[in-house]
What does this fold into?
Amino acid sequence: METMRIINTTIVSIIMFVVYWFSRLIPKKKRLWIFGAWYGEKYGDNTKYLFEYINKNVPEIRPVWLTRNQQAFDLIRLKGYEVYWTYSLKGFLISMIAEKIFITVGIKDVNRYVINRKDVIMMWHGNTPIKKIVFDDTITRKNQLFLEKFLYFLFPFLGSTRFNGIVISGSEEASIIFKSAFRANEKQILLTGYPRNDTFFDMDQNAPILAEIESLKRTDTTTVIYMPTHRKEGKGEISELLNIDLNKLNQSLISLNTKLFIKLHYFHLKKHNYKNLSHIYFITDADIAQDIYTILTMFDMMITDFSSVHFDFLLTKRPIIFAPFDKEKYIMNDREFYFNYDDVTPGPKVKDWDELLVYIEKFIHNPKLYEKERLNVMRRFNKYIDSNNCQRVFSAIYNEKN
It folds into this structure.
């Protein structure tokens, strides 16, 4: 199966090879900027917030979104913004002449076959990475087949090749990591803060509210969001993370007057088939218009494992419980870490769900537990604690070019 995938990729790549190099000869249209996210499958993350900021505030820039997802396409059209299918004729033409390209995960976010990597701005899809990424991620790269590595070298639009564009950073720690992970130099890193984090301070977002949370706003029910990171780029199992009697867990949550909302990683979201219970709710993309940041400030506390999302959630100054149930296995088989885990996770580290429930109750009674530790880590990994990240990113990119 894997060999057939590589053969098919090779055939397409040979056909697109000519298109890729031809597109580099076409003059670029000044102030035409294109955006994409999550392999063209979502309308969210840092690119979304910069895209909307420009649409609302910078009429001299023409922002265009590219997508392969019907829901994302409809969401953008509904807002009245310009959007095209990634691999449509219009998508190809727009991509060929775009001056700047903004992505969150990789070049596959947009039309990878016609993009000049020097024109790319990597907005990133997390805060400061805990787990090693891109060229620093030796475990994932070690598992690549030799033929796959050779194809990446021969056809630069396929995957991880040397990055020649700009990378957005939110902290000094992230800047150091990005220089290493992307093999970038200091001039390629812009320390501006992440656009999506403006939502923690700008409450006038007109964001969709999950009905289950809306119903809780007038009650004293505690809301908890659980956001575990992926396993093996989505190829690993996450069932062991929920290796618990969910009905029993639900009863415990009822006694704590607490509702648990579970948002699985993008890589696992389409695969799960868990059923909702009275006090356990699995969030889907349809619930949140593909963007968890539209409702993240509504939760009283967070549970996570190795995801950098907790660096963002720290901006709320609310409690975080860390559930690294499979840490040793994860470090050995999935990703190594950039940091000593305990140094960057300001909260209790629980070994199982029973202990996790104990800390939910403790935080209900005293949300200031670990407050000093949270504030210290928040400042370390968020240089800017305000709602001006979009404006800083735009100014840095615009001034860098003009």
About this structure: The chain has a mean pLDDT of 86.
